[in-house]
Design a protein that fits this description.
CATH superfamily of chain A: NADH:ubiquinone oxidoreductase Nqo5 subunit
Helix content of chain B: 25-40%
Shape of chain A: elongated
Largest sheet of chain A: 4 strands, mixed
CATH class of chain A: Alpha Beta
Strand order of the largest sheet of chain A: 1-4-3-2
CATH architecture of the domain at 33-62 and 72-160 and 180-199 in chain B: 3-Layer(aba) Sandwich
Number of domains of chain A: 1
Strand order of the largest sheet of chain B: 1-2-3
Number of strands of chain A: 6
Largest sheet of chain B: 3 strands, parallel
Structural class of chain B: alpha/beta
Shape of chain B: globular
CATH topology of the domain at 33-62 and 72-160 and 180-199 in chain B: Rossmann fold
Helix content of chain A: 10-25%
Number of helices of chain B: 6
Oligomer: heterodimer
Number of helices of chain A: 4
Bound molecules: iron/sulfur cluster
Chain lengths: ~180, ~200
């Protein structure tokens, strides 16, 4: 169901800047179209697409920052959530609405593993194609390939103790 | 040197210069080091500054930055080597003709620097290729790069023709290019040129 868009317009134009909308995946494209084309909002520019890993709530949230170049207002944050599990972590792409989302959605796919349905060219953009992990997820474990220095951060300190200030021998072995 | 210094200076007065072939060979190599033109991150800006008018690397004969590895003698690894870039760096190094030298410029190139805990940062380019000079700093000043160049020239002038590796048939001239793996580069380091630091 599409939310009462009239209400969205009122809410956004009341305090147009610094608002955020959390929408269901199924409704994202309709809402995006509305935000872009509504004469009072005209959010015609998507400046940033990023993602947040809410590991405790078991979801990944993709955040679109929208501005209106025509009306000089914004930002409005459009947020869409998907479950963390890799197979279900998908949502409709908003690249057809804002063309500039293309690379940034690729980045969200690369680093968070969000699959965007309807994206024209969904490939990794920063990591190499053979890479299988999604490094910005909070449960990502980077390769143990250097001597960890003891710092006050509990996690780093634990790793530093574990490796004893050296590079583990496994750093030299090829991992499959 | 076997030539008597007095005789040498006498000969010099007559316009005759006596020197070992090795000296001439090393002198000409060290006086025209052509670096390969590529920069990887912020350090590259300092490298450019070192080559530009104020610091003028041309004074040391190293101003001809070549766009092709085939024409270069010196690789200045100026900046962060990401794991995605590492195979290309090794490949460029392999394509340079011998004799060739490597300067690792900045904290990133020598150890990963401020990005050491990054998942996509190579923790030092010396994991794959032999490095002649390391310059610490983030970024090193152009003066530091010039000092590195002078240090390298000193190193070159001390090389002996009968010992240098590029005339040795058994010395490796090509280094294995790492492959992109599922979680990391494979292999993560070349054991022939690098070993983990001892405790
Ligand atoms: S050492 Fe510092 S200046 Fe040089 S590339 Fe790394 S971060 Fe940039």
């Amino acid at each position: 169901m599409i939310p009462p868009l009239e209400q969205v317009r009122e809410m956004l134009s009341a305090g147009a800047a610094k608002s955020s909308l959390l929408v269901e995946r199924e409704e994202a494209v309709a809402v995006a179209q509305f935000l872009k084309t509504d004469p009072q909002l005209q959010l015609d520019f998507c400046s940033c697409v990023t993602a947040v890993d809410y590991i405790k709530q078991d979801c990944i949230e993709v955040v679109y920052h929208l501005y209106s170049v025509a009306l000089k207002h914004g930002p409005v944050a459009l947020k869409v959530r998907a479950p963390r599990a890799l197979e279900q972590c998908r949502m409709p792409s908003l690249t057809p609405v804002w063309r500039g989302c293309e690379y940034q959605e690729r980045e969200a796919f690369d680093l968070y593993g969000v699959k965007f349905d309807g994206h024209p060219d969904l490939r990794r953009i920063l990591m190499w194609d053979e890479f299988v992990d999604h490094p910005m997820r909070k449960d990502y474990v980077p390769p143990m390939d250097y001597e960890w220095e003891p710092t006050p951060h509990a996690e780093t300190l634990a790793r530093a103790k574990q490796t004893g200030g050296t590079v583990p021998a496994s750093a030299l072995e090829a991992k499959k | 040197m076997a030539v008597d210094p007095n005789l040498k200076s006498e000969l010099q007065k007559q316009g005759i210069f006596v020197m070992p072939v090795e000296f001439l060979y090393n002198w000409s190599r060290k006086s025209s080091l052509w670096p390969i033109q590529f920069g990887l991150a912020c350090c590259a800006i300092e490298m450019i500054a070192a080559a530009a008018a104020r610091h003028d690397m041309a004074r040391f004969g190293a101003e001809v930055f070549r766009a092709s590895p085939r024409q270069a003698d010196l690789m200045i690894v100026s900046g962060t080597v990401t794991k995605k870039m590492a195979p290309q760096v090794v490949r460029l190094y392999n394509q340079m003709p011998e004799p060739k030298y490597v300067i690792a410029m900045g904290a990133c190139a020598i150890s990963g620097g401020p990005f050491k805990d990054g998942y996509n940062v190579l923790k030092g380019v010396d994991r794959y290729i032999p490095v002649d000079i390391h310059i610490p700093g983030c970024p090193p000043r152009p003066e530091a790069l010039l000092h590195a160049l002078m240090t390298l020239q000193e190193k070159i002038s001390k090389q002996h023709l009968n010992e240098v590796s590029w005339y040795d048939k058994n010395a490796p001239s090509e280094f294995p290019v790492p492959q992109y793996g599922a979680h990391d580069l494979e292999p993560p380091a070349n054991p022939k040129v690098w070993e983990p630091p001892k405790k």
